[in-house]
Write a structure and sequence with these properties.
By secondary structure, the protein is an alpha/beta fold. The chain is built from 13 helices and 24 strands. It binds NADP nicotinamide-adenine-dinucleotide phosphate.
């Protein structure tokens, strides 16, 4: 079914304490490109979430007692299995999420890279010795796994958003419960199947699938046995989950929404800027938190950039992600298309012009359904329009022109978000000034694709807190413990 080399990767049940749990009702997982049923998955709820937390609690003692090397070997096996099954995992991802198969396989490699990275980084959880203020004492700092980690993840990266968290948690010695997005549970369950094959012990990695987001979320955020909660999703939901975590004072990390500026200065390499904007905007049909949300172009480069960008975007091929040659897939749902269309209409009503839209794009298939939105470019956008202040989360580029460097920085920072930002310039002084002036956790300089396992991914302001990946990524899963040894005088 679905042309998988290994049909066993398509699972229908939650994975709790090393076994597959069925429930009384099902969730239908539909292909956003066709609307057709991909699979039915058992609809777990509060009781199963509680079971998963208990399983993770029970597994914590033995898992945290393993040596870093032992955990590393198991994580590496998990990584190897993900890469060996990249084709199938990519296919499952495209079927439930919509992104083109090449992009889906790229997400599998990206997610797996975090497992490989933390398999190594887990061996380097170093402590400190600190000179004590008096001679009869010694100060030693050790780091220990925090305990049971609970996670809630979104549909836009059904594999990688889980891998980034689970790899760091497991490498630190924590056990893990994730509730994936209702629309995309299959990639999470395939990861569980491979974790089991890798020999990761029962209870260490649990996946509970269910459509009661609120009820299951309450268990994961309010449970006394959960020490840490980590979330990737919208800022609105993130805020309410932070407040739920307050009742048990959990350690919390949040990867939330973004409103990335992409600034093109007069001195930029325009062709490079066009290529960077294309990948940072239209990847995943514009549905990533680091997607360019506003393109700011200095007046001297405006005509040239816009012409070249429109020509490049026109070449994208919209269609079913499993079809050959398709470079941009559907959005997650017809409702998501409606939301983005409203932003386009608002912008036009507020004075923007449609430089590229439905009538211009190369459609891979003339009978595309209502989950598809053609790549769109709006010119004449100004910073007071609603599109400049909303996370678009769709394939639309609003172009705003500016005169000076200071004006560009001011417009870029005029948002409550602070996740990714990008700018193109060849002036070394400007590069430092702008990089330091942007209030964003990540800055792409002459680069539109910035995410990788070695780099700290995360946001400032209302885009969240904590960092995923890199040497900093373990910190969110570790407690710092200070040991004071006294009475050392003879
Ligand atoms: P969302 O609506 O916040 O949903 C994210 C997850 O939270 C889903 O699993 C959802 O479950 C669950 N959820 C929703 N309401 C909940 C509640 N009241 N209690 C507990 N859980 C709840 O976000 P989305 O639309 O799926 O994802 C898009 C957002 O994620 C964008 O804002 C994007 O920028 C952000 N994002 C951020 C990053 C980052 O690293 N900073 C990465 C990717 C995405 P259901 O599936 O059942 O609704």
């Amino acid at each position: 079914m679905h042309n998988l080399n290994d049909p066993q990767l398509l699972k229908s049940f939650s994975y709790i304490n090393g076994s597959w749990h069925s429930s009384a009702s099902d969730i239908a997982v539909n292909n956003p490109a066709t609307g057709k049923l991909v699979a039915k998955v058992s609809n777990a709820g509060i009781a199963e979430t509680e079971l998963a937390v208990q399983a993770a609690k029970a597994a914590f003692k033995a898992w945290s007692a393993k040596s870093a090397n032992e955990r590393s070997a198991l994580l590496r096996t998990w990584f190897n299995l993900m890469m060996a099954n990249q084709e199938d995992l990519g296919r499952i991802l495209t079927l439930e999420q919509g992104k083109p198969l090449a992009e889906a396989k790229g997400e599998i490699a990206y997610g797996a890279a975090f497992i490989e990275w933390f398999a190594e980084e887990g061996k380097r959880v170093y402590g400190d010795t600190i000179p004590a203020p008096s001679g009869d004492k010694r100060i030693v700092v050790i780091k220990q796994p925090i305990g049971v980690v609970a996670a809630i993840t979104p549909w836009n990266f059904p594999n990688a958003m889980i891998a980034r968290k689970a790899a760091a948690a497991l490498a630190s010695g924590c056990t893990f419960v994730v509730r994936p997005a209702t629309q995309t549970p299959l990639s999470a369950l395939a990861m569980a199947e491979l974790a089991e094959r890798a020999g990761i012990p029962a209870g260490v990695f649990n996946v509970v699938v269910g459509d009661d987001a609120r009820g299951m979320g309450k268990v994961l955020t309010e449970h006394e046995d959960v020490a840490k909660f980590t979330f990737t999703g919208s800022t609105g939901v993130g805020k309410s989950l932070i407040s739920q975590c307050a009742s048990t004072v959990k350690k919390v990390s949040m990867e939330l929404g973004g409103n990335a500026p992409f600034i093109v200065f007069d001195d930029a390499d325009i062709d490079a800027a066009v290529a960077g904007a294309l990948v940072s905007k239209y990847r995943n049909a514009g549905q990533t938190c680091v997607c360019t949300n506003r393109i700011l172009v200095q007046e001297g480069a405006l005509v040239q950039f816009t012409e070249k960008f429109v020509a490049a975007v026109k070449d994208l091929v919209l269609g079913n992600g499993l079809d050959e040659g398709v470079t941009i897939g559907p959005m997650i749902s017809a409702q998501a298309v409606g939301d983005v269309k409203r932003l386009i209409d608002d912008s036009i009503n507020q004075g923007a012009q449609l430089a590229l839209g439905e009538d211009d794009s190369k459609l891979g298939d003339s009978k595309l359904g209502d989950s598809f939105l053609a790549p769109t470019i709006l010119t004449g956008v100004t910073n007071d329009m609603s599109i400049a202040h909303n996370e678009i989360f769709g394939p639309v580029s609003p172009i705003i022109s500016f005169k000076t460097e200071a004006e560009a920085i001011a417009i870029a920072n005029d948002t409550e978000f602070g996740l990714a930002s990008y700018f193109y310039s060849r002036d070394i002084g400007r590069i430092w000034r702008v990089a330091e002036g942007l209030d964003f956790g990540m800055v792409g300089i002459n680069e539109g694709l910035i995410s990788n396992a070695a780099a700290p991914f995360g946001g400032m302001k209302q885009s969240g807190n904590g960092r995923e990946g890199s040497k900093y990524g373990l910190d969110d899963y570790l407690e710092i413990k200070y040991l004071c040894m006294g009475g050392l005088d003879q």
